[in-house]
Please model this.
Amino acid sequence: MRFIFEKDTWQEIYDSIRKNKGRTAITIFGAFWGILLLVGLLGAAKGIENSFNNLFGDFATNSVFISGSRTTMPFKGFQEGKQIDLTIRDVEIIKKEIKGVQFVVPRNATGGQVTYGFKTGNFTVFGDFPLLDQVQKKRLTDGRFINQKDIDEKRKVCVISEGVYKELFKKNEDAIGTNLKISGISYQVVGVYKTSRFEGTNNIHIPFSTFKLVYNKGDKFIWMVVTGKKDFDIVQVEADVKLLLKNIHNVHPEDNRAFRGFNLGKEIAKVTGFLTGMQFLTWFVGIATLIAGVFAIGNILLITVKERTKEIGIRRALGATPNKVRQQIILESLFLTLLAGSLGIIAGGLILMFIDYKEWLTNPTVNIPIILIAYAILVILGTLIGFIPAYMATIVKPIDALREE
Amino acid sequence: MIKIEKLHKSYPIGKEFIHVLKGIDLHIKEGEFVSIMGSSGSGKSTLLNIVGLLDVHDEGKYYLNGQLIKDLNEKKAAILRNKFLGFVFQSFNLISYKTALENVALPLYYKGVSRKERNEIAMDYLDKVGLKDWANHLPNELSGGQKQRVAIARALVTKPKVVLADEPTGALDSTTTDSVMDLLKDINNEGMTVFVITHEEEVAAQTKRIVRLKDGVIVSDELTKAPKTV
Model:
């Protein structure tokens, strides 16, 4: 095996490859494309997964949003069309009665005109409990989120999202401690946070109790976020909560439209399934292309061996032993797969960098070990496939090879 | 140098066998300049291929440099070719993507000579055939005569015992034929055994010994009165 480390061996192969650039390009294209696809697709799949995770940010994924609506069936003397309003009492009952519920977070919301200095904007104003931070983690860039004291003292404070900050404040202006006027009432800003894409960008949060007082809501609220405990099926939790609510609010048990629910857990499971399927497809397509690429190298080497019969005949007349001839062709195959693999990985990486630069996907990356394994497989297969043309090159007698015109 | 006794060779064509060489006896001593004459089908190429270890004989004995050639495998044949024989072909058989220098250096690569050394040796031989200035040209940039001179340089570069030339002037016009033959004569004058196959009388006349072959047997074997200088 000493020949592998001899500079001359490689020089000869390098020469023969360098001086036949067209042939080399055609030979390696298949394998190059294979590894490019594998890197590109795996990176893109990872990027989609990251983007998806980013979309929901730090939301508790096993959660369901439930709100009251109008009944569609008459029940217990009530006519259909009755408006159902969720109340704080419902929250207490749900917490007490339903197993598997971790948090129940009531929320209120309304549109409001907000003024700061000479600037005005229309934003969504939420009435929230501190608990919201547990189920929809707020990434605060400044200050704090609403706390229990705000609730207890019905303080006029607000937490604003980055979108609101950008619209009302100058760049780098300190928002904390300033006062905003929301529908004519002054609130002190106590926090600024970064939103995930799912949340929308123009949000203002004030204490639930303050909201109740200012907008005269009583105990009513618009919707609640219910999260399930670990190991509990969120779909079942949703069904249990709704049934309980129907019971409390005198709604027909089969009236499915009296309460609206958006089950985040269910939707995420769907997308996760899709992502898993896509990853599987990526692997399948990538590996199949890679193998096809290796066969293409073998195939084209076989063709070039036929084309080079004469050259091989000359080399043998000049004293190349069959082993030398075989060596050269196998090493050419090895070299070509190394080249194809390296170029493919580099090109795939560049594509992923471009996708990342354009921010089409979030952090499209591929694990280095996966790439190394794919690379190793490519090189091993490439070497093995080289044995076929190498064998073909030596079964022709030099005399017959020389006679070939 | 080359000693052949009762050499027979036949080729299968379908189910038939064509008896090409029918008992050849030939003895070529070191330093001789021999030509084999014969029309096509006389068996002269077959003889050269056997002498050149590119083909094997059926019967008889062949000694190359005193060594009996028998049961050679490809590997041994390749090593012997590299060591003892230099080939010059009618169609030059240069490798098209290698420069003149690289073509000349190739046999040394298979001999295991280092790159630097073999390029130096190859350059010396290119100089000898008058093509030093063409060292970095590809074969398709050379004329027919130049290509054949490169091929001769390649045949000589390993310092073989015998140079085997198969119709070396077959693809050349009369002027370049003369220059190639002059070169072969020079080589011979330096002591190299040269073995030429040709069907051209003028070419054969410039060698020192003509062996005429017809239908697989030697019909005549005589020394020429070729002058030492032209």
Remarks:
- Chain A touches chain B at residues 7-8, 11-12, 15-16, 19-20, 310-311, 313-324, 394, 397-399, 402, 405 (CB under 8 Å).
- The mean pLDDT of chain A is 84.
- The first helix of chain A runs from residue 7 to 18.
